[in-house]
Amino acid sequence: MQKEQQKIFNERLSSLDTNERKKLYKRASMVRKLTQNKRKPQDDETVRKSKSLDEIVLQLLLQEESEAATGPATGHGTVVWLGPKTCQVRSGASITECALNRLHSVAIGDRVNFRPHGDTNAILQVMPRTTVLSRPDVANGNVERVIAANIDIVVVVVSVVAPPLHARIIDRYMVAIQRGGAKMVLAVNKIDLFDESNRTVELEKLRPYDGMLTMIQCSSESHDGIEELRQLLKGQTCAFVGHSGVGKSSLINAFEPKLAILTGSVSEGYGRGTHTTTSSTLHELSGGTRLIDTPGVRSFGLWDIDAAGLAWYFPEFEEFRQTCKFRDCSHTHEPQCGVKDAVMRGHVSQARYDTYLRILTFL
Fold first, then answer.
1. Residue 38: left if φ>0, alpha if ψ -120 to 50, beta else—which one?
2. How many alpha carbons fall within 13 Å on the CB side of residue 153?
3. Nearest to 138 by CA among 147, 130, 129
4. Which of 96, 127, 205, 244 is the least buried, fewest Cβ under 10 Å from its Cβ?
């Protein structure tokens, strides 16, 4: 396989999940077996002449792409719903259902071109994205999974008390959102559960973020902070993300009652949320606001972040890294490190620095 072919092969294969890859390689194996047995497969001459399994896989992918792309695009719009095998594209006031294929990695919020294909419609092209929020694929960490595309604001929802506030996921989302180019808003939900015994403890966990990002304390029950959130997001395309059980769906319902999104409860014993949102949906609201509801997560990994670049996503380090003795200082073990000195003096949060070190160990 030539260098250019290898590049195309890697790009196409990276868009497939594990099961799709297995099916594709199984099909390629059958094609090669037929070729070896001098039987004529149903594929074109180029496929039959391919020698390696990877070459056959590439030809099958290109063949499917060619078949799907026959003819000009007949429509374009925004992906507003994403399921396991299909997506829905909004074009003006109409909704078109399109089958998902192995050739295009589609995310909620993508702008796409499509055309009829068989009994359904096929995505012909995914337009360049302005911003993204992505993570590594759960099954294959070498594959990027885009959670939402072309978003202005990512609303990271955390809760207090039930489930308890976990600040580590805030730090990871901050890194991913900065990398993807969107803005971040932190929505601290369920503040109606505050009492004298837990208010100080819970709010202390948020102290490191004072002045670093926009933070709104809110409650879907008491409606505290809801109007502030509505005004902040007016006219923007925004995605709501966070742990399962933090109340994203309930918060969105309070934000826009007509949506009536299904909500669940926090499971007993572990304080973990149950998955009530199982697919991503983009809702068109009044005032030009576009809201994306995403499934809750148990954990959130970081995509395409290396050890050398991680510190750039901790903006509070910037002022002090200028005084590091070494230009390539990792802020871990080096002597005369401005960041470590700032942590010792209390100018940089110890909790944030500990998160930096924790993330660094997994890169």
1. left
2. 23
3. 147
4. 127
CATH of the domain at 337: 1.10.40.50
- 351 with 324, same domain? yes
pTM: 0.77
Q: What is the phi/psi pair of residue 296, to 5°?
A: -70, 160
Pairwise CA distance, residues 153 & 237, whole Å: 7
CATH label of the domain that carries residue 104: 2.40.50.140
Q: Is residue 26 part of a domain?
A: yes
Quick one: which of 162, 207, 171 has its CA closest to 189? 162
pLDDT of residue 66: 63
Residues spanned by the domain of 88: 75-126
Backbone φ and ψ of 137, nearest 5° = -60, 140
Dmax (CA) for the chain in angstroms is 80
Share of the chain above pLDDT 70, in %: 85
Task: State yes or no: cis peptide before 163, omega within 30 of 0.
Answer: yes
Distance of CA 170 to the CA centre of its chain: 14
Q: pLDDT tens-digit profile of 150-164?
A: 999 999 999 988 788
